[in-house]
Specification:
single chain; 123 residues; mainly beta; four-stranded antiparallel sheet; globular
């Protein structure tokens, strides 16, 4: 998955989807690369207000998933938390990560999923 924002390309990379990178669109130069924690696969990218929000599939947990927030300029981790339920899977059912009203995070899934979207309140 990739997203373009603020003159940059943000991209989930590597075979195991365990890195997020930012590239400058003018020069093509990689600005930063952040490796997620062991046992975490990136499921999607949300870019807003200087943050890269990355829902992650936590290995070994079928009941909950996580959320990593990176600084959009540096790739430094700013926040790490868990969701009380599973938001998607590494199979790619998560279609998009969108900013919602009142600071909420909207996770949109592919057609046919039992819940097409979920809104989470950021605390």
């Amino acid at each position: 998955m990739a997203k373009v924002a603020y003159g940059r390309l943000y991209l989930i990379g590597s075979v195991f989807q365990d890195t997020v990178s930012a590239f400058d669109l003018r020069s093509g130069r990689r600005l930063w690369r952040a490796r997620l924690g062991s046992g975490e696969d990136a499921l999607g990218l949300g870019i807003a207000e200087g943050r890269v929000t990355v829902p992650v599939d936590l290995y070994g947990s079928s009941a909950e998933d996580g959320l990593v927030v990176l600084d959009a300029d540096t790739g430094d981790e700013r926040d790490l938390r868990t969701f009380p339920d599973s938001v998607a899977s590494s199979a790619g059912d998560l279609q998009d990560v969108l900013p919602g009203p009142d600071g909420r995070l909207i996770l949109a899934r592919r057609e046919g999923y039992d819940r097409p979207f979920t809104a989470y309140e950021e605390r």
